[in-house]
Amino acid sequence: xxxxxxxxxxxxxxxxxxxxxxxxxxxxxxxxxxxxxxxxxxxxxxxxxxxxxxxxxxxxxxxxxxxxxxxxxxxxxxxxxxxxxxxxxxxxxxxxxxxxxxxxxxxxxxxxxxxxxxxxxxxxxxxxxxxxxxxxxxxxxxxxxxxxxxxxxxxxxxxxxxxxxxxxxxxxxxxxxxxxxxxxxxxxxxxxxxxxxxxxxxxxxxxxxxxxxxxxxxxxxxxxxxxxxxxxxxxxxxxxxxxxxxxxxxxxxxxxxxxxxxxxxxxxxxxxxxxxxxxxxxxxxxxxxxxxxxxxxxxxxxxxxxxxxxxxxxxxxxxxxxxxxxxxxxxx
Length: 332
Ligand SMILES: [Zn+2]
Ligand SMILES: [Zn+2]
Known about the structure:
By secondary structure, the protein is α/β, with parallel strands linked by helices. Helices cover 23% and strands 26% of the residues. It binds zinc ion (2 copies). One zinc ion (ZN) binds next to loops.
């Protein structure tokens, strides 16, 4: 009997009678991170990393029953030893390690092995069974170093400002937005935030995070804003809220932007391939480095990646069907 299986509610540990990132309401939910495909509404009790708590309260309401854990701290539920380890995906994101009768399982949630300078860097957790996401599990996804992309973003902002244009950067409000903000060259101009981004920053400020930028409120005089950068979620693309900031140039910041055509389909001026997930190479390296003999792939190109692993490594790989999908909301 496997320690973790998938049933109609989510990823289930029968021995401990709890779920990880369940998609239907259950009693006890271990949560890897605050993105909406992993942290859903309706659980009786949530257990997440300390830094996910303000996000959970912002998104699900302040009256939730929630317990925070630190990275590396272990606790038990019905004999199953549980600990959370940095996943390097967004602030608070965790891999969840389960150990029972000498067998170790790790579920990655979403992860990225390249440090982003904002979230706690990914920690390699040795295990026997490794359940890995594979959002970018195709060889075509090889992301450039993010430091290069941030300098391109700053260069582009600078030249837009010189031309008298504002710069709009689209990125998911939780994760991408903070990473961009942490790397903007504030000497270029002013930084403004869409409400969705400002709300997340405000929640994170309660636990000591600080990011630059002014909440762009509806009553603010937009005509005076010039040469600034505006950070907004992808859903703000084409909204009347933005029209008042004309003239502007706009760019999508997402791992999907690596593919030609993705930018055109989004009808923006530019695309920056900035991701908070592992690319192809990072996924391969992580799967091997864990030392796991059994690997389960989910959340992405699981069929292809599972076949690739079975054919190229001495490992048993299989597909685990789940409902995790950052899709268009996260626009990773
Ligand atoms: Zn995520
Ligand atoms: Zn996800």
